[in-house]
Design a protein that fits this description.
It is built from four helices and no strands. The chain has 121 residues and is mostly helical. It is elongated and about 55 Å long.
Length: 121
Amino acid sequence: MKRWTAWQNWVAVAAGLYTVLAMTWTTAVGSSNAYMLTGGVVLIVIGVINLAAPGMPVAEWVQLVVAALVVASPWMGSFATDMPAVAWHTWIPGVVALIASIMAIQPAMKVYHEHHPIGSH
């Protein structure tokens, strides 16, 4: 896998960007902006790391965990019931990033094993 070519990580970056930008057209509820900003920025950063340095399964797992936290953030930040419209702007990109992250793990493991064969240490 070449650098900057994993579509799954581009999807995660786009999902993070959407989460951050969604703050501009949604009404903040409690700590929703903090959760959306943090989750979106971290998705963007880990996605760019995975794009720049493919073949790091650990980083793909981190991206998966971050995506899961973005999905969970409306409940963690208590804005799932107060303002479901804001929550949907977090759940949808979070689920998209979660699915893309799941799909990115196997290719990253393959690249890792190609460059680090068993018994080479």
